[in-house]
Amino acid sequence: MSGWSRFRNWLYAWMPDVAYNYCNSGDPRFWTFDGKQHDIYSAGEFVLYRHKKRNVEVHALFTACPGDSGNLGAACTCGVAIRVEDSLYVYRTCREVSYQTVNLLAHHSTIYEVCDDKHMVISTESDGFTKITLPSGTVVKYKLHGNWIRYLHIIPSAFDIDNMEGICGNANDNDADDFVAPDGRTPTSDSREDNDIIINTWKFLHGETDGMNPMLDKSVKRA
Question: Which InterPro entries match (predicted)?
């Protein structure tokens, strides 16, 4: 995994949760930090949240939803991956990622690499959510429904405001700047097609090495 050699020394400030806005991914509904709603129609691994100054990222895996197989319909969430510096946490429920077929794991896969309390704190809440608290105070929460990640929330810390990018956008109460490509491009209109173009710039393409879900490049099927 390239990128794992990019180490940075920074001050880890443990702070309580700061509920500003939150990014919410469902099946297939998706809301940015500032409440802009969109549906995910692409399969693959996407950057939901990336800190602009620190080596912190949250990715999600999307694949065909049950009942949509073969119809190129909306996508559902089957994986989440979180990286903080040299620590990695991955939870995955799908065997392969596909636009047209559903292929789930018989036993869900969980990967921990150097997941100590310095980098992230992982806990299970009484309502069934798995909660991952990042050093800045940002919180990632997800909850299963059967073999799917039905709820995936990212609650940003106040320290992350204006320092975040990805398809969750920037939590600043301005949904006009929520869909911004890595190169700064924005949609030419508010149509689904133009928003999809920008969202897909945050997708890891087949064979790229910075994706965080192991073996994803060997499991993505476009047909």
Answer: Mucin_vWF_Thrombospondin_sf, VWF_type-D
What are 79's strand-pairing partners? 61, 92
Number of structural domains (the chain) is 1
- Residue 17 covered by a domain: no
Task: Record the pTM.
Answer: 0.81
* Numbers of helices and strands, H then E, in the chain: 1, 15
Note whether residue 18 is domain-resident. no
pLDDT in tens, the chain (223 residues): 333 222 222 222 333 344 446 788 766 678 899 888 888 888 899 999 999 999 999 999 999 887 755 555 678 899 999 999 989 999 999 998 888 888 899 999 999 887 778 889 999 999 999 999 999 899 999 999 999 999 999 999 988 888 999 999 988 888 888 899 999 999 999 888 898 899 999 998 755 545 555 544 334 443 3
Phi, psi of 197 (to 5 degrees): -60, -45
Please, what sign has the CA dihedral across residues 10, 81, 163, 53? positive
In terms of residue numbers, what domain contains 151?
A: 23-214
The first and second tokens of residue 28, run together, are 């297939």
- Asked, for residue 104, whether it belongs to a domain, the answer is yes
User: What is the rounded distance in angstroms from the CA atom of residue 132 to the CA atom of residue 154?
Assistant: 10
Query: What count of other Cβ atoms lies within 10 Å of the Cβ of residue 13?
Result: 10
